[in-house]
Design goal:
globular; alpha/beta; two-stranded parallel ribbon; 11 strands; single chain
């Protein structure tokens, strides 16, 4: 029997959907999470002991027996890269031979979007370990676009006229499953590959607002802000400065064209077209329920 695949974030949207796809394919899995009670009960899957990325001993125990680690990035925080490095080192020490890492479109050391820099540094660290690897650079999530819209029906941010090729969680899970299953089926192992997982088109915020208007039956609009206006309007959240900077620079990255690339990776890997934003809204009405009067 092939070594198990360790799936992190298995109680979340990407890891959870991936785990279900791998279970359906009869793959042996270790499901990782900080709270095992939240992990799904799936045939062929074992719930690993609780583990967080920053706990080297717990991570090493959790991935023991796995040949591949599917690594979903940690929630944004100032120490995220350090946590990723600890998790990677623990996996390699436990004998993991391959890491499939969920990265971000536009990852670069000087990316406008500050959180994208974390992904670049994590990619570099994984490369330098010498472990076999594949990087899945996801665009922004389609589910995040309705969430960026206020209850007043307005999207506000310094996105200018930039475009974003947002992708559905389901598409990421299908692409990831294809990458992970290929090796088990003695097909192309995707070693060293970096895939940009995007939707089928890049939309402006005005076009996103128009799609939300059609879905909700009310007028949704986009109001561009200057960076100064964006920071000032978010002061009411009393968030940490690094977090507010991440929120604002996500819009600025779009304005700068860093999130507009459209690739064929989803249809190539998943064997079907990538999900359009309009179709995502039609299939996920809960995503915009806060906008429906």
């Amino acid at each position: 029997m092939a070594p198990a695949i360790a799936v992190t974030g298995a109680s979340g949207r990407i890891g959870g959907q991936l785990a279900r796809r791998l279970s359906g394919a009869g793959v042996s899995q270790l499901l990782l999470g900080r709270d095992p009670a939240r992990l799904p009960d799936l045939p062929g899957a074992v719930k690993a002991p609780p583990a967080s990325y920053g706990d080297a001993q717990a991570m090493r125990a959790a991935v023991d027996g796995a040949g591949t680690l599917f690594l979903v990035s940690a929630h944004e925080n100032p120490g995220r890269v350090r946590q990723h490095k600890t998790a990677v080192d623990a996996a390699v020490a436990a004998g993991v031979e391959r890491i499939v890492y969920v990265s971000l479109l536009g990852a670069a050391p000087d990316a406008t979007f500050t959180f994208a820099r974390d992904h670049w540094h994590t990619e570099q660290y994984i490369r330098n370990t010498g472990v076999r690897h594949t990087f899945l650079r996801d665009s922004f999530y389609q589910a995040a676009l309705p969430a960026m819209t206020g209850k007043d029906g307005v999207i506000r941010g310094p996105g200018g006229e930039g475009r974003v090729s947002a992708v559905a969680h389901e598409d990421i899970a299908d692409a990831a499953a294809a990458v992970l299953l290929a090796e088990l089926e003695d097909l192309d192992s995707h070693d060293g590959a970096t895939y940009e997982l995007t939707g089928p088109q890049a939309l402006s915020f005005a076009e996103i607002a128009a799609e939300l208007s059609r879905a909700t039956g009310r007028e949704i609009t986009y109001v561009p802000q200057s960076p100064e206006e964006a920071y000032a309007s978010r002061e009411r959240y009393n968030a940490e400065p690094w977090e507010v900077q991440g929120w604002v620079t996500s819009y600025e990255a779009i304005a700068n064209g860093e999130m507009e690339a459209v690739s064929d990776a989803v249809p190539t890997l998943a064997g079907r077209p990538a999900t359009a934003f309009a179709d995502f809204l039609g299939e996920n009405p809960d995503s915009y329920r806060h906008l429906v009067r």
